[in-house]
Specification:
It is built from 10 helices and 8 strands. The chain is an alpha/beta fold. Helix 2 (about 20-35) packs across helix 10 (about 190-205). It starts with a helix and ends with a helix.
Length: about 210
């Protein structure tokens, strides 16, 4: 299954960002065990490349493991070498082009119509609408009007009760970080992480 197919099927991308590498890896395992098969490990996490390697080595073959906050060509290369099979950027820039050149699917960050079009023309598999919460689901719906064929994945400040609204607005999927992972990537409660994971999966599937 391609990344685009997986996003359309599961509609939920979990974003892991934390200060405890072992806890980040545990967070990934809990998310996978609870039905989330699209994971992004932000390169701003402590020892992020080691986390990526651990997660990629132990995850099922059909899991999509991405590297987030890819800003440069070096970031893209290191992410690929660590086992990432897609990348995510917060904005347009070198990381997008490098990922495309390496043959890695990329969710390229954009917010304005001009940026969305530029991301698409640069070869982005989908456009990460970021930060989504600054303008809300209405912005996604407004972008869908001129760009009906560009897949949009809003990210940033999306809580459980927001999932339905973004999907109804035309998002292909949503990307969720701390509202889903909580403090688990920093060594927090895995039981609460399990509860939140099940709730987000149920919301995405029902939507």
């Amino acid at each position: 299954m391609t990344l685009l197919e997986a996003l359309a099927a599961h509609r939920l991308l979990a974003i892991i960002r934390g200060t405890d590498p072992a806890a980040c890896a545990r967070t990934a395992a809990v998310l996978l065990d609870n039905g989330i098969s699209l994971l992004e490990v932000s390169l701003t996490s402590t020892d992020a490349l080691d986390v990526l390697e651990r997660v990629a080595a132990s995850a099922p073959a059909d899991t999509h493991i991405g590297a987030g906050t890819v800003l440069s060509a070096a970031d893209a290369r290191r992410a690929r070498d660590a086992g990432a099979n897609f990348t995510v950027t917060p904005a347009l820039g070198e990381g997008v082009q490098a990922s495309v050149d390496l043959g890695l699917p990329v969710l390229a960050g954009a917010l304005t119509p001009s940026e969305v079009l530029a991301a698409h023309r640069a070869g982005a598999t989908a456009v990460k609408v970021f930060p989504a919460s600054s303008l809300g689901p209405g912005h996604v719906a407004a972008l869908r009007a001129p760009f009906p064929d560009i897949p949009l994945v809003p990210v940033g400040g999306i809580g459980l009760d927001d999932v339905q609204r973004y999907l109804d607005a035309g998002a292909l999927a949503v990307g969720v970080g701390s509202p889903l992972t909580g403090d688990a990537p920093d060594g927090g409660d895995s039981a609460e992480l399990e509860r939140r994971a099940r709730a987000f999966v149920a919301k995405a599937v029902r939507s």
